[in-house]
Amino acid sequence: MPPLPRFAAVSAFVLLCCLAAIAAKDFAMPAAQPARSYPAHDDHPLEKVAVAVDPYDVEDKASIFSVNYRNHGYMPVFFVITNDGDQPVSLVGMKAQLNTKDRSKLFPSTTEDLARRLSHPSRNDRPNTLPIPLPRKEVKGGVDRKTWDEIEQAQFGAKAVEPHSTARGFLFFDIANISNPLAGASFYLTGVHDGKGGELMYFEIPMEKYLSAPEAKKP
Question: Where are the domains of the chain?
């Protein structure tokens, strides 16, 4: 093979490999810093627990996902809770909500909520002309396996925070028909209990802390 066509063939092969690698990229949960290090946080020094939220509302941050959740009306919010105490903190009864400027109360969507919104099944009534049946791509809730796995891996699911540790994950808020959900909004967290079963004081985070921070939108 002449040098030029051979180079073109090799280049095309490398490009295809890169594209395949990108397409097959699996979701990787971002590493979490201590909650008090984020611009939008609420620290309870006496209870030794801090909570932070980091909205993934810009394209460069949201690119860690294979799905463009904003196009489907969702805003992923990275949720971080740090326990600096000597006893575990229970999150079994945890309730998070985002109160918008117009007093709408938004709650994190469930896996099933996300699957319903993301699913767009299309029928293909063409008969199969091959002698054997084609394997079907496994789906759950109308979405493909990769998307379902990403949702499950990304969503915050911790039931407790061990002493001197941090738990993290994403909360997905339905912001369909809300043009600017963060302006004037506040994040609230209740239902966090200490090792003796007592409920901690509620956490409140004005989202202006995030919007006004110069470095807030960097991943």
Answer: 27-121+132-211
In three state form, how does the secondary structure of 88-124 look? CEECCCCEEEEECCCCCEECECCHHHHHHHHCCCCCC
Write b or e for each residue in 132-148: b if 16 or more Cβ atoms lie within 10 A of its Cβ, otherwise e.
eeeeeeeebbebeebbb
Q: Which two tokens mark 172?
A: 């997905």
Decide if domain 27-121+132-211 falls under CATH 2.60.40.1230: yes
Say if residues 76 and 69 touch (Cβ distance below 8 Å).
yes
pLDDT per residue as tens digits for the range 39-77: 999 999 999 999 999 999 999 999 999 999 999 999 999
What's the rounded mean pLDDT across residues 68-93?
96
The pair of structure tokens assigned to 42 is 């609420």
* Residue positions counted in the chain: 219
Task: Give the whole-angstrom CA distance, residue 124 versus residue 206.
Answer: 48
3-state secondary structure of 202: coil
Q: How far is CA 38 from the centre of its chain?
A: 16
Give the number of C-alpha atoms closer than 13 A to the C-alpha of residue 4, restricted to the C-beta side: 0
- Do 99 and 184 contact (CB within 8 A), yes or no? no
What average pLDDT score do residues 13-39 get?
71
Q: Of 218, 91, 56, 77, which Cα lies nearest the Cα of 165? A: 91
